[in-house]
């Protein structure tokens, strides 16, 4: 990818920019870190950018304060699920990234897998456990669910990010316990067949797949601590794939992102199974932008500084 420079004329066109971060989701802490980094980068580039935390200010203040557009860096519910996108559309304020439908689809891991399956894109087998079913007279048969998924599974709240509420399970009791934990975050739980292989992520930036990153961690899986706290996590970019395979994972990620109505920028997470097939995990429409986040690492490999990356994401609000 060639480095694209945002001109002074473009900077003027942005006007007054609200950087939306913080919020009330379980990912507030990460959003605060991401938003601070983005705000500093935009201000360094000469953008008239200001912090706006929806947890502290009514959304209508965006209009009263005369903001021309919004850079959404709210992770999780309330910022990444389509609700903030819908509110901004009603207020007539342009914003970065994916719209209402695409945000809602990508935030929901179950609907994402259903869309990908309908499109013929590869993703692991799965079952869905609901809070209503767990609380009913006919409770889930956890042993049967696990047997249908080859005996090992990942349990995930359907609409959470940053690996919050996730667990790897290998027997029926572990599965039941993990489902109960996941239900503390969501009414729907995805139980996904475990993929034994390396994990990759591909950043999408304005129609281009950036170089893939391979993650390696001594943890059981790439969990919250591995992402944000543990210094032993390794990030390989270049990821070590040959040119043909790199092209393959990039095209698959683009198809997955746009298959969910993605727009502007985002990140697609995948794993490679024992047969060498890349399996889609999820699509992130407002990925992390902290110092340890994956998108800035991929952008750097593509020749983009953090400031240039932030400007290119902001440019998507001009569409």
TrEMBL record:
List of residues binding Mg(2+) 2: 282, 284
SUPFAM superfamilies reported for this sequence: Glutathione synthetase ATP-binding domain-like, PreATP-grasp domain
Entry's Gene Ontology cellular component terms: cytosol
Reaction(s) the record says it catalyses: 2 D-alanine + ATP = D-alanyl-D-alanine + ADP + phosphate + H(+)
Annotated signal peptide: none
Domain ATP-grasp, residue spans: 113-315
GO biological process, one term: peptidoglycan biosynthetic process
UniProt KW Transmembrane helix keyword: no
Keyword Mitochondrion among record annotations: no
An example Gene Ontology molecular-function term: D-alanine-D-alanine ligase activity
Cofactor(s) required for function per UniProt: Mg(2+); Mn(2+)
SMART domains: GARS_A (SM01209)
Co-factor binding details: Binds 2 magnesium or manganese ions per subunit.
Record's keyword terms, sorted: ATP-binding, Cell shape, Cell wall biogenesis/degradation, Cytoplasm, Ligase, Magnesium, Manganese, Metal-binding, Nucleotide-binding, Peptidoglycan synthesis
Chief subcellular location: cytoplasm
Matches recorded under InterPro entries: ATP-grasp, ATP_grasp_subdomain_1, D-Ala_lig_Van_CS, D_ala_D_ala, Dala_Dala_lig_C, Dala_Dala_lig_N, PreATP-grasp_dom_sf
Residues reported to bind Mg(2+) 1: 269, 282
EC number: 6.3.2.4
Pfam family membership, one: Dala_Dala_lig_C
Pathway assigned to this chain's UniProt record: Cell wall biogenesis; peptidoglycan biosynthesis
Family: Belongs to the D-alanine--D-alanine ligase family.
Listed HAMAP family: Dala_Dala_lig
Reported function: Cell wall formation.
Protein name as it appears in the record: D-alanine--D-alanine ligase
Gene: ddlB
């Amino acid at each position: 990818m060639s480095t694209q420079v945002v001109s002074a004329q473009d900077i003027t066109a942005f006007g007054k920019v609200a950087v939306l971060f913080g919020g009330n989701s379980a990912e507030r802490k990460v959003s605060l870190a991401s938003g601070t980094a983005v705000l500093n980068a935009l201000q360094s580039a000469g953008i008239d950018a200001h912090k706006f935390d929806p947890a502290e200010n009514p959304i209508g203040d965006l209009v009263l304060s005369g903001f021309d557009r919004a850079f959404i860096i709210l992770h999780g519910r309330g910022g990444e699920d389509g609700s903030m996108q819908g509110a901004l559309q009603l207020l007539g304020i342009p914003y970065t990234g994916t719209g209402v439908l695409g945000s809602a689809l990508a935030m929901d891991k179950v609907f994402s897998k259903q869309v990908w399956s309908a499109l013929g894109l590869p993703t692991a087998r799965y079952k869905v456990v609901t809070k209503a079913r767990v609380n009913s007279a006919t409770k889930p048969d956890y042993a049967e669910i696990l047997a249908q998924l080859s005996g090992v599974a990942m349990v995930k709240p359907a609409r959470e990010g940053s690996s919050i509420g996730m667990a790897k399970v290998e027997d029926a009791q572990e599965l039941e316990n993990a489902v109960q934990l996941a239900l503390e975050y969501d009414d729907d739980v995805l139980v996904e067949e475990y993929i034994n292989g390396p994990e990759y992520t591909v950043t999408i930036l304005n129609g281009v797949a950036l170089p893939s990153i391979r993650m390696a961690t001594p943890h059981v899986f790439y969990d919250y601590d591995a992402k944000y706290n543990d210094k032993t996590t390794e990030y390989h970019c270049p990821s070590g794939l040959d040119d043909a395979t790199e092209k393959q994972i990039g095209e698959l990620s683009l198809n997955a992102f746009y298959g969910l109505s993605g727009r502007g920028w985002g990140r697609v997470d995948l794993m490679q199974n024992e047969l060498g097939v890349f399996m889609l995990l999820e699509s992130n429409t407002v990925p992390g932008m902290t110092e340890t986040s994956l998108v800035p690492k991929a952008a750097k490999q593509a020749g983009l500084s953090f400031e240039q990356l932030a400007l290119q994401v902001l440019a998507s609000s001009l569409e």
